[in-house]
Structure formats: C-alpha cells, structure tokens
Design a protein that fits this description.
Layout: H1 2-13, E1 32-34, H2 47-54, E2 59-61, H3 80-117, H4 153-159, E3 167-175, H5 179-192, E4 197-203, H6 207-215, E5 219-222, H7 239-266, H8 272-286, H9 289-301, E6 308-314, E7 319-321, E8 334-338, H10 349-359, H11 361-367, E9 373-381, H12 382-398, H13 406-415, E10 424-427, E11 434-436, E12 463-465, H14 471-480
Parallel strand pairs: 1-2, 3-4, 3-6, 4-5, 8-10, 11-12
Antiparallel strand pairs: 6-9, 7-12, 8-9
Length: 482
C-alpha cells in the first residue's frame, strides 16, 4: 500500500505550475485518478483518503486503470479493455432503440396531423384548413388549422359533440397529378354531385394543382410514402425502369428483414401492440404507393361513421362522372366492378403476372378463370368500405412483389371469399353505374343525344373509368363538360 502512496506523491509533484496556478498540490478538475482496487481496505491512511488529500480537484475512479490485466475484484467481468470494446455495441443498441422511438413518434404524428386537420363541424373546410402538400413530408405551416395550432383530441371530441349531417365521400389519391387531369375529374364530379365531400391524398402535386383543388372544394391531405417508383406501370423492357423496380423490391425486403431482427430489441421498451403499430407505420411508408394509399384511406376513415354515409374509393387521373355515383348503391353493400370480358385473370398478361408475383401459382389456378376486377373503383357504405380496407391491410403491408400488388390482392381476396361478411356485389362491366372502358373497343360505345355514354337501356353510366386509353373518347368527354 505504501508504494501506491509514494507514486501518488510523485504524480502530484510532476504537474506543471501553469496547470495549478494556486501552487496547490493536485490536478485540474478534468484529470482522472485511478486509486486502486475497490476491495482494498479504506483505512485512514489508505489509498482513497490519501488520494483526496493529494489531488483535491481530481475525479476519483475506484478500480484499476484500463489495461490488459484482469480485474482482481471480479474475474467474471474480464478485463477493462474488453468492457471498453463492448461500449460501441451498447451505444449502437441504444441508438437503435432511440431511432425506432423517433420513427414511431414521427409516424404517429403524421397520422395525427391527418386526423386532426380534417373539418370537425360538418361544414366545408376553408382555405386555411386545407392541407395542400408536396413531397414526402407535410409542411408544418400548412398543417395548422384556422383555429390556431393543432387541435388536441379533447378539443376535437368537444367540438364534434353535435352530430353533423352525413355526407357521401369520394376518396382518392393524387400522385404527380397534372392540372388538366384534376380539372376534368373535379369539374365533372361537381356538376353531378355538388354536395359530396372529396378528399385526395396528395404527393408531388404542383402549386397550380393545389389552387385548382381549393377552387373545386377538394381537400388535400399528405400522402406519406417513401416508394420511389412511378405513377404509371413501368415498361418491363425499359432497363432503367426495371432497375427502379428491382431496387424498390430489394429495399422493401431489406427493411422487412431489419424489422424482424429488431423486434426482440424493440420489445425491451414497447409492448406487443406498440411494436405491431410501429411495424405498421414503417411498412406503410415503404410499400408501393398504390398499396400504401389503401392503408392511409383506412387511417382517414377511422372514427368517421357519424360523418359519412357512403364512400367511393376512386382513381383520379382517368375517371369521369356523368351522374351521381352513389344513387344506385344500396346501403350495407360493397360493390366491386369487373373489366370488359372475355379477358380473365389467367388470359390477361398483366393481371396474370400481378397475381402470380403476389400469391403464387396455387392461388392463380383457383381464380384464373374469373374476370378481372378493377381495384381503381370500389363503392359501398361506410362500414363496408372500412371492413374492406381492414381485410386488405395485412396483405398490402406484408406482400411486396416486384410488380404492383394492389389489384392482384383485390382480385384474390374477392374471389376466394374473404369479403363475404361485407355483403359483396361483383358487377359485370356494363351492368352497373361504372363502365370500365380500358379493354373495350370504340365500336362498343353507345351514346345518347346529350353525348353521354349509356347502357343497353339508355341510362347514362355514372362513372367512366380508364377513358384515357381512348384519345377520341377523352376529347369527347372533355367537350362534354365545356
């Protein structure tokens, strides 16, 4: 023990005078002194009291100075160098937990922005309450309602104490939407259904398109998604677009693998429901945008039963309205619309590829004889649409094929009976309010005196879908609305 005391005295005398201008024996406050093992006796002349007298301002560390020798107090701990090497691993784990917590909070905040920014009193939102957005993340200054700041959930509940009248809702997605496409969609809809609410999840839309949406009383909400694909289906023979598709596919596989690997770590700080919600919010950001839109439709529709009566999930770019789309839809039903025959899921090359890439050959054999159901338009009562989205969500978030998965999932679940509890109605093309013209020829079109497309009974179709496949038809519909 005396040898340690002499070493401490020699170390104290070795400090230069400028480091201790007062002339006192000691070290600056930033110096660290190792005073021996913690199991040595701490007598009055022992190492700890003597060190405090010799180094009055030092940070005293009980134990050995880091080195290759094993710890004498507890050999099971190994050397101090081993513990130092383990510090980066511990720091990495802590950073991972912090990162997951941050992503979880941001995802919940985005969802809260969407839920709190919608109108609460049953009236149409004014300009300051709308959310025109661009890019991935919503702008904070556009997320502030006219009431001044984000409303709390308690304020939302108190504001909505009086039940407003229920409206019909058209819910769609505006991804890189051009101003001309939105103008035709909005102008035709407002002529036949002026009282319907219209909400679009917007991503990469221009300022002019935002102004046009405001003029037509369309509410824009942020579409939160990190997918870097294209709005239109990429050509398989285009090498650049094929690389994009493969990159997105590998990226989603990597993130899903990291989520599974991080689950035990996340369980250290979160419950199982919280971990499941965290995984949902992350997967919602990385899946294909066409799949993510359905999940975000569900986020918007939660707890909206007192506000909406019937809901139409609709494409925007290639949809034209000739009559009220909700007039012929009964209550408590889910209407899904087929495309033109005789094309089937097995004979049409694109749809066959989508089902095969998403579910495999076993499911394809079961439904390949069925006609194609278009996932672009689905109409039903509020409860049936919410049930439809809830049934679709697990498949949309977990299946990430190379190709667009939403239509393959829509057809497979419809024809295998997953939606049977929702009272589904599969409507043959031409027999219902929606006419899907993508696979039709112009010789099949029938017009009335007012220039509208009509069915065999002379009744105008409420909705014309995929009209952009026929340039002459698109020009004629454009002239119809002036």
């Amino acid at each position: 023990m005396r040898v340690r005391h002499r070493a401490a005295d020699a170390a104290a005398k070795s400090f230069p005078a400028e480091a201790n201008p007062a002339g006192q024996r000691g070290v600056p406050g930033s110096q660290r002194l190792y005073v021996g093992c913690c199991c040595e006796p701490g007598t009055a002349g022992g190492p700890i009291p003597r060190a405090e007298r010799v180094f009055p301002g030092a940070i005293l560390t009980v134990g050995q100075k880091p080195g290759p020798k094993p710890n004498r107090c507890n050999p099971m701990l190994g050397t101090a160098r081993t513990r130092v090497r383990a510090l980066p691993v511990v720091a990495l784990l802590m950073a991972s937990v912090h990162g997951l917590h941050t992503i979880y909070g941001m995802a919940l905040a985005c969802r809260d922005f969407q839920s709190l920014a919608r109108p609460l009193n049953g009236t149409r939102p004014d300009a300051s309450a709308r959310l025109p957005c661009q890019g991935l993340a919503p702008r904070i200054d556009l997320l502030l309602p006219a009431a001044g700041g984000l409303l709390s959930r308690e304020m939302a509940v108190s504001t909505a104490s009086t039940a407003p009248p229920r409206h019909n809702l058209v819910l769609g997605m505006a991804w890189n939407l051009q101003i001309g496409d939105l103008d035709l969609f909005a102008r035709s809809l407002r002529q036949v259904a002026p009282a319907a609410d219209v909400v679009l999840l917007a991503k990469d839309v221009s300022t002019e398109t935002q102004r046009l949406a405001h003029a037509w009383q369309i509410q824009l909400l942020p579409l939160n998604n990190c997918y870097f694909g294209l709005c239109k289906s990429a050509d398989k023979r285009n090498p650049k677009e094929s690389r994009k598709r493969i990159r997105n596919y590998l990226g989603m596989k990597l993130v899903n693998g990291l989520l599974r690997a991080a689950y035990p770590l996340a369980r250290l700080g979160y419950t199982h429901p919280e971990c499941r919600e965290l995984g949902r919010e992350i997967r919602k950001l990385i899946v294909h945008t066409y799949s993510s839109r359905f999940v975000q439709y569900l986020d918007f529709l939660r707890n909206q039963s007192a506000r909406y009566d019937k809901v139409m999930l609709s494409d925007v770019r290639d949809v034209f309205f000739q009559a009220d789309p909700f007039a012929r839809i009964p209550d408590h039903q889910l209407w899904m619309f087929q495309e033109e025959g005789p094309h089937t899921l097995g004979s049409d090359r694109r749809n066959r590829r989508w089902v095969l890439a998403t579910f495999g050959r076993k499911v394809l054999r079961q439904i390949e004889h069925q006609r194609i159901l278009c996932a672009g338009i689905t109409i039903g009562s509020y409860a049936n649409i919410v049930g439809y989205l809830q049934a679709m969500e697990p498949e949309l978030l977990t299946r990430s094929p190379v190709y667009i998965p939403d239509q393959g999932i829509h057809n497979a679940m419809a024809y295998t009976g997953v939606f049977k509890h929702l009272n589904p109605v599969v409507v043959k093309n031409g027999d219902g309010p929606v006419l899907t013209v993508g696979l039709m020829t112009e010789a099949q079109f029938k017009w009335d005196d007012a220039g509208r497309l009509v069915d065999a009974a002379g009744v105008p179709y409420a909705v014309i879908h995929q009209f952009d496949r026929h340039p002459k038809l698109a020009a004629r519909l454009q002239r119809l609305v002036g």
